Amino acid sequence: MSSDIDTSSQSQRLQHVEMTLQALYHVIHGNAGVEMQCLGHFKLLFSLLSIQGAAKLQRLALQAISTVTGNKKCVENIAEANVLQFVLLVLHMLPSSQELVLEVLQALMSDTKIVKESILKGALIYLLDLFCNSQNPTVREETAALFAKMITDKLVGPKVRIVLMKFLPVIFMDAMRDSPEASVHMFENSQENPELIWNDEAREKVSQEVAQMTEEFFQKQKQDPDILWKLPEDFQVVYTQVQGEVAVGGVFLRLFISQPTWVLRKPKEFLIALLEKFGQLTQSSNPDVRIISLTSFFSYKLCEKGMWVTALGFACGSLVYCFVEMQRF
């Protein structure tokens, strides 16, 4: 008997909260500037997202939150509240509302502090799971657009890019910035050129790894919302290793040799990476002869062709020349 009363009481309480959230949404939606009254109350509002088994309440809370994210002061106050984990939890547990969650995140990511918090709270692994494994094309495209926005943040963007490069070729980040839709098509299609080797094996490996990491972190975060996310120090999902290729500066050397007329997207960055790789190899006590031969070959050829007559080019050419001369002895 008491159990029935408790259940009925809880159901009534949830219904009252749902009605309150509906009213809050309509008041803010219809009266510009009223959202300022929410300042200082975001921890309570966002915590409602973590109530499991109450999908309607979670959706109503999301709708209410979406009405305040256009206000800069509200976004700043949300950043101070440290509540992003609740948005990420509902992103994973409520697939039917993923588009709305992404809309909220898109608005919140205009604040650098929230972008930084998002990395610590696991946003990148949750979003990678959507980009790689979602069955909804719109969700995947909106996720790519969100990644593009995070990457362009002046302070935290480079760190976001570095983490994503652990899972996806760097060319995907450029595609997300230029066209989110094109980046999704690129992920789904197999390609092989000097700047991208992407096939079923690579796609499956990345997708499975991301799905497993997401589920493991979700279970931990559900138990402890304050838990922080980070990649294991020995983590390696290096897609290039799937094909056994030698890649320097995002360029696959074997394919570049076979396609010498290929126009690189970032030729100067490639030369810099070659120089750095060459320096690392020559200082190694047990260098890979195959890789050192490839890097020296390209460095020499690029400088020989006069592609970039710069101090960097001369330095690279000099190092390669010295290496070639040393091999004669």
Task: Summarize this structure briefly.
This protein is mainly alpha-helical. Helices cover 68% and strands 3% of the residues. The chain has 3 domains: 1-81, no CATH class; 83-244, no CATH class; 246-329, no CATH class.
Written description of the protein model:
The structure is a single chain. The protein has 329 residues and is mainly alpha-helical. The protein folds into three domains: 1-81, no CATH class; 83-244, no CATH class; 246-329, no CATH class. The chain has helices at 2-30, 42-47, 55-66, 72-81, 84-93, 98-108, 112-120, 123-133, 137-151, 157-164, 170-178, 180-188, 200-223, 239-243, 253-258, 267-283, 289-304, 311-327; strands at 191-193, 196-198, 247-248, 251-252. Helix 3 (55-66) packs parallel to helix 6 (98-108) and helix 9 crosses helix 12. The longest helix has 29 residues, at 2-30. The N and C termini lie far apart (93 Å). Mean pLDDT is 85; it is low at 1-5 and 307-329. The chain crosses the membrane at residues 306-324. Keywords: Membrane, Transmembrane, Transmembrane helix. InterPro entries: ARM-like, ARM-type_fold, GRV2/DNAJC13, GRV2/DNAJC13_N.
List the helices and strands and how they pair.
Layout: H1 2-30, H2 42-47, H3 55-66, H4 72-81, H5 84-93, H6 98-108, H7 112-120, H8 123-133, H9 137-151, H10 157-164, H11 170-178, H12 180-188, E1 191-193, E2 196-198, H13 200-223, H14 239-243, E3 247-248, E4 251-252, H15 253-258, H16 267-283, H17 289-304, H18 311-327
Antiparallel strand pairs: 1-2, 3-4
